[in-house]
Amino acid sequence: MKITVIGGTGLIGSQLVSRLREAGHEVVASSLSTGLDLLTGAGLDEALDGADTVVNVSNSPTFDEASPAFFRTSMENLLAAGERAGVTHQVVLSIVGVDQVPQLDYYRAKVLQEELLRGGPTPYSIVRATQFYEFMDAVMSWTCDDETVRLPATPVQPIAAADVVAALADVATAPPLNGILDVAGPDAFCLDDLGRLTLEHRKDPRTVVTDDKAGMFAAIEGDVLVPQSGARLAATRYEDWLGTSR
């Protein structure tokens, strides 16, 4: 099978490219750094030439009100190029609970991307993942100082990036779902407790203060970021992942 990975040089994309190649597939890794421009369409026809499946793990350069325009233009260009190339399966990486968070620009933008994919000309699959373990440092950095990290008690069920990659690889090499697969880690946490666990493991002396107005996740109500029944749950536990991370 020939598979093109859009965003193929990033955290998820680079691992996915390696995994698919190890499985014997012909894989093209495409991104800005390889000359692909999703907004103008430059390089798309070349990237998709002969591809059976396209896996889109690209991301908006911003998380604000500019993100819907990025996802609209990039998705429309990708679908049109896929149709020209005879692609038979389009896969997109999205977020668990994304359609339950209309108050965030970025989440609305991802919903738009999903809607365009569903309404497009090609059979599709949507893989919705929970927050990545690898992003916990960034989340804490938004609302920290030298002594404290302020985090809301938002329920989350994060997942290792490698486990997201495994799910994407399985979906990309199977018949289209024409639907959604949720993937998550094995354990649910409150975000502030997850911060405490992280700092304790790293012997970081800062204190986590529960602040339900701190950071992007403060806008999220209830447990919408936690998967419902039917999700694919990965095996890697956060504590075990911490033991192998830096």
Structure description:
The strands form three sheets. A seven-stranded parallel sheet has the order 2-1-3-4-5-8-11, with helices on both faces. It has a two-stranded parallel sheet with strand order 6-10. Helix 1 packs across helix 6 and helix 3 packs parallel to helix 4. The protein has 246 residues and is of the alpha/beta class. The model has no long low-confidence stretch (mean pLDDT 95).
In a nutshell, what does this entry contain?
By secondary structure, the chain is an alpha/beta fold. The chain is built from eight helices and eleven strands.
**Number of DSSP helices?**
8
* Amino-to-carboxy terminus distance: 35 Å
What string, H for helix and E for strand, traces the elements in order?
EHEHEHEHEHEEHEEHEEH
Overall, the morphology is globular
How confident is the prediction overall: mean pLDDT? 95
Query: Measured on Cα atoms, how large is the radius of gyration?
Result: 18 Å
The number of E-state strands comes to 11
Q: Kindly report the oligomeric state of this protein.
A: single chain
Q: What portion of residues belong to β-strands?
A: 15-25%
Please give the order of strands in the largest beta sheet.
Answer: 2-1-3-4-5-8-11
The secondary-structure class comes to alpha/beta
| Helix percentage | 25-40%
Low-confidence stretches: none
